[in-house]
Amino acid sequence: MALDITEHSKPPRAVFVPFMMGHHFGVPFHHELQRRIILESLDLIMTAEDSGTIRHAPITWAQARREGNEIERGLGLRR
Amino acid sequence: MTATSNVGQQLRPGLWETINERYPGSMITKRDSVPLAVPQMSLATSRLAFVSSAGVQPKGTLPFDVVHPVGDYSFRRVPSDARTEDLEIHQIKYPTSGANRDLNVIFPIERLQELVTDGVIGALTKDFFSFIGYNMDPERLEQTLAEEIAQAVVDQRADIVLLAPA
Question: CB distance B2–A53 less than 8 Å?
Fold first, then answer.
């Protein structure tokens, strides 16, 4: 979700991922990244101390895409 | 709120204002944050529910009405032990290019199943829950769809809930 929409809807806690719509858990076949984003979210569920906390996931969309492309090359899905 | 808007980090900045100007009253806004509910048990002993606005549903179930002008205020149950090949997406309001190749990019059911197998999460609720995010009446959404999903989550004795937009 967009950061500004998250700020308007004021959930008790949220992890913001700066990814393309429809890809909030990362990129295809990047299992480690998908898992990492879930774990980041679960950690915030367990540890948030203030309502309204928004944590920024420490990864960029460009980095996620680069890593995803590399994984797909390794799987023979991309040249 | 601990972070302020940083348009440099949002791929499409100004979405809330842009959409609300075009469709006045369609965007959710709240004065106060929902009070924080502190988990009462560890993650490894918690039952997790997953709620998604991605419009994911088991193949063969009634497709979401993706062309209705004010939206579809129903939800679908997705068995948490489902295989991705038994699921499909009925939603046209977000890019599904990644999800069509690997559903886990928007509905990470396999990763959640693995986290239970690995003992990180205690268990999953019997079902996950999915609806479509295109709903133009936030009050109706809050009073119907959100309440119905919340009740379903309670009925399945979830300890924690992970919500994900699409």
Answer: yes
